[in-house]
Amino acid sequence: MTLPIIEKAIAHGDRLALIDEGGAYTYAQVLVASHRVASCLLGAEADLQEARVAFMAPPGLEYVAVQWGVWRAGGIAVPLCLAHPLLEIEYVLDDTGASILVAHPDFEAMLRPAAEERGIRFVLTTEAMDAAARDLPEVDPARRAMILYTSGTTSKPKGVVTTHRNVTAMITSLIEAWGWTEDDHILHVLPLHHAHGIVNVLLCALWAGAVCEMLPKFDAETVWQRFAERPLTLFMAVPTIYGRLIRAWDEASEGTQARWSEACAAMRLMVSGSAALPVSVLAKWQSISGHTLLERYGMTEIGMALSNPLHGERRPGFVGLPLPGMNVRLVDETGRVIDEDGRQGEIEVRGPNIFLEYWNRPDATQQAFRDGWFCTGDISVREDGYYRILGRSSVDIIKTGGYKVSALEIEEMLRTHPALRECAVVGVEDPEWGERVCAAVICRADETLTLDALRAWAKERLAPYKVPSRLQVLDELPRNVMGKVTKPAVKALFIATADERR
Ligand code: MLC
Ligand code: AMP
């Protein structure tokens, strides 16, 4: 059986698929490149049989060639974040039990030793894309396709496993809802180790036969220039990115502003998601671009669940209605399904999009479901069928710049700092990041700590977006009568103090 995304690519043949820093590539070229990668990964084997293949490749042909190469060889794709320190990478290698690590030559010095230490086969992207093509196995779409790491209410990130069938369901739901066609051309600026960048942008574009133009990293000036130069039809980003684009537009000359605004008007759709879109950003973007941002709601485990409509009312402050194929309900604290509008409850979802399991964590997988419905932990109300997100059931989950991070995971790492006796990490509302990671700490006797010193230390151990950007050194942490740290009181300390922000 040929995997659905590969079948689609075969049908798209000589159409333009990707544009990256190195050039432009047709679907046929992407297929040849991924066939070579698959052949290299297979070596003497007939089928990788769901072996985990971790890979670190920059956005562009190499990333897609490896992702598809892994899939075509029967493996599970485990994309690594380009900005993660070695400790985070090693955690993923160990947790997935990866047997192959594919890396762009830029990352060889960091990754080869980690692979060799673990007996993991190390392959360079250049080598893989040069291999001679050979016969590839049949891969059943019910098999596992991908593991993406997500932080949650446990201290360590969990691997979210999706099957090819899950991924196909995520893609087709969005193709239908947002009217993707082969005439689309999207600018890709998001990281490629998370669902938003991988599924909503990259895979939807390639499924549709559209053009996906990939930037090495987000940069506001470059994005505006591409808007002005290219025949783009679509753009998708997190609210922090729209905030940055607004700032760049505000700082531009009147002539440039007019040119940039005109370029937006030529597009057919602009989407925001991964974190709450402030109504002020929506309004400002509307005045700059003429677009009412389409806000939608999703999660690594489920793909996208709710979306404002392509045609029809896009309601500011709301994340919209259930997407095609998704069942969505609200449930109160007693587990009763809420039928009436206006009452808040937790969002639960069911449908072919929903992930298979947390990798090697059967207990966590079981706990995440209630009667076959996935419990998102997000609290919402419904009005006229439209959902509005009110918050999360756990204070320990923080969304910063569209990334989900776990306060518990950061605390566990900070506790290993030699100068620290205790700490509490909270997310504090912030106009730029949505929420900001803030740490309140108690130092050991005769020790002190500055924010810069803490950040430098933490950056070697945690992803950059998990590193606290505000610090308070306290004598005591606020606690309740049971002695438990009261996170709302810690938050209040940061809100009350206008100490220097980064
Ligand atoms: C970067 N930094 C962050 C950060 N991103 N800090 C907190 N939160 C973040 N998200 C740090 C950098 O390390 C740097 O530290 C400083 O902030 C400024 O860096 P920058 O260069 O200005 O930031 P940049 O690299 O441009 O990143 C900003 C961003 C990025 C908004 C482009 O955060 C981003 O791509 N976010 C998107 C995340 C995403 O795709 N989420 C989807 C998850 S899937 P220093 O010390 O060096 O100055 C999902 C499901 C769904 O949520 O519904 O979609
Ligand atoms: P992740 O685990 O990184 O996939 O993040 C998923 C979480 O992002 C969800 O559980 C929500 O809390 C949040 N989220 C995604 N989209 C939105 C949105 N439009 N508004 C508010 N929160 C969102």
Please report which band the strand proportion falls in: under 5%, 5-15%, 15-25%, 25-35%, 35-45% or over 45%. 25-35%
The level 1 CATH classification of the domain at 4-140 is Alpha Beta
Question: What is the rounded distance between the termini?
Answer: 52 Å
What does the average pLDDT come to? 97
So how many helices? 16
Question: Major β-sheet, in short?
Answer: 9 strands, mixed
CATH topology of the domain at 4-140: Rossmann fold
Largest beta sheet: what is the strand line-up? 2-1-10-9-11-12-13-14-15
Small molecules held by this entry? malonyl-coenzyme A, adenosine monophosphate
The number of E-state strands comes to 26
Note down, in words, how this protein is organized.
The protein has a nine-stranded mixed β-sheet, sandwiched between helices. Strands 16, 17, 19, 20 and 21 form a five-stranded antiparallel β-sheet that branches. A four-stranded parallel β-sheet has the order 4-3-5-6, with helices on both faces. It is α/β, with parallel strands linked by helices and 502 residues long. The chain is globular and about 65 Å long. The chain contains 16 helices and 26 strands. It binds malonyl-coenzyme A (MLC) and adenosine monophosphate.
